[in-house]
Amino acid sequence: MPIHEHDEIIDAAIRILLKENRQITISFSPGGISIRFPTTRKLAEYLDTPHYYVLPRFGAMERDGLITRVERVGISTTAAGTKELLKLMAERYKEHAEEILGREVLQALQAHAIGNELQSCT
After folding, report:
1. What is the C-alpha separation between 67 and 29, in angstroms, rounded?
2. Could you report how far apart the first and last alpha carbons of the chain are, in Å?
3. How far apart are CA 100 and CA 13, in angstroms?
4. How many CA atoms lie within 13 A of 29 on its CB side?
5. Which whole-number Å values give the CA distances from 84 to 5, 52, 53, 106, in the listed order?
6. Which long-range contacts (CB under 8 A, 24 or more apart) does 116-121 make?
7. CATH for 3-121, among 3.50.50.60, 3.90.1200.10, 1.10.10.10, 3.30.565.10?
8. Kind of pairing, strands 67-70 and 32-35?
9. What is the mean predicted confidence (pLDDT) over 83-97?
10. What DSSP character marks residue 59?
11. Which residues on adjacent β-strands are paired with residue 36?
């Protein structure tokens, strides 16, 4: 499934993080930067969709390498998912993102996400 087909879920996650939770949990590791997603139940509620309709979409996002799901830990973006989430965040919700993260942090996260992609291509 192409990345743009996941935009609705990613967009909803961004809106929950920036507008409802007003916080973003970011993890740094040698593998890159990951951003914690809201729960599947929270996303289903936000999208006004039954939970069982959201689960296969998360499975597709996991197969496409955008997220990882760990039982009792939660859902986080992969390097590719972080890049896509940050891209949509900057395009659609830049003002809200800068309010939460600050302009410099948002720019640094975007630069790092792009840099990781370039390094993996070499």
Report:
1. 15
2. 25
3. 15
4. 10
5. 12, 24, 22, 13
6. 116/32, 116/33, 116/79, 116/83, 117/79, 117/80, 117/83, 120/79
7. 1.10.10.10
8. unpaired
9. 95
10. H
11. 76
CA distance 84 to 65: 11
Strands (E), the chain: 26-29, 32-35, 67-70, 74-77
Residue with tokens 């593998």: 31
Task: At 67, list the tokens.
Answer: 């997220």
- pLDDT category at 59 given cuts 50, 70, 90 is very high
pTM comes to 0.87
pLDDT (0 to 100) of residue 21: 96
**Average model confidence (pLDDT) across the chain:** 90
